[in-house]
Amino acid sequence: MHVLKCMIVDDEPLPLELLTDYIKKTPFLELVATHKNPLEALNTVQQQNIDLVFLDIQMPELSGIQFIQLAGEQCKVIFTTAYRDFALDGYDLNVVDYLLKPISFERFLKAATKALHTIYPVAVAAPEQQPVPAAAAAQVLFVKSDYKLVKISIPDILYIEGRKEYIAIHTTTGKIITLQNVKKMEEVLPAADFARVHRSFIVAINRIEAIERNTIRIKNEMIPIGEMYKEAFLKLINSNNLL
């Protein structure tokens, strides 16, 4: 997986903090620097190999538009602004995307993914090369843990446990901690193989050893079944002829 080296340029602390958090949650982004001063940020672009800049437009000393004109083609840019008036400027400057504050994580992720595909277009395999089967690719996911990307084999996952601002992915080989939430993991994992059984838990169906009243046993761990998830879970188990 390609990883984009990112920089945030914004003179306001709250957007700076929010975007920092969003980047940490996104596996294919690596935060290299943050700047409140666009002139200092311009030096960073010139001195380091920055792929993508999340750039505010209205800033003292140097506007976002002037920043792009000076930076040239050294990096790609996503505008982050509270004003709609600059959308045409963004189009003329060929920015990757235009995010209006306040920025949701879903909208941020869409823009970041667009930047990834812009910088690293999907290559067409040469005739002599064998493309990776889609089924094989679907058996692996990457998560950011301890400042690095960790590859996880989906069939090795036992269950996933939500812990406030992060999750613990329990596998046959150990536990991986990552800044993510249970809902997002539920969307990524194959629905036929995993079930949300609690606000804080997702389980691998084929790893279930026993269901005892309102709990599930996996590798001697007792996982609660939430009342609001119980009916759907039992229907899923029935559909797999497990009951």
Number of helical elements = 8
Report the count of strand segments: 15
Q: Report the biggest beta sheet as strand number plus sense, adding barrel if it closes.
A: 5 strands, parallel
Assigned CATH class of the largest domain: Alpha Beta
What best-fitting shape do the alpha-carbon axes yield? Answer: elongated
One letter per element, helices H and strands E, the order comes to: EHEHEHEHEHHEEEEEHEEEEEH
What structural class do helix, strand and pairing data support? alpha/beta
Whole-Å distance between the termini? 40 Å
Strand content: 25-35%
The CATH superfamily of the largest domain is known as Response regulator
Q: Spans of 5+ residues with little confidence (pLDDT < 50)?
A: 87-91, 123-137
Which CATH-level-2 architecture of the largest domain? Answer: 3-Layer(aba) Sandwich
Residue share in helices?
25-40%
Compute the number of structural domains: 2
Rounded mean pLDDT is: 83
Rg, alpha carbons: 22 Å
Q: What's the CATH topology name of the largest domain?
A: Rossmann fold
Strands in their spatial order, largest beta sheet: 2-1-3-4-5
Protein name: LytTR family two component transcriptional regulator
GO molecular function: DNA binding; phosphorelay response regulator activity
Domain HTH LytTR-type: 141-213
Modified residues (4-aspartylphosphate): 56
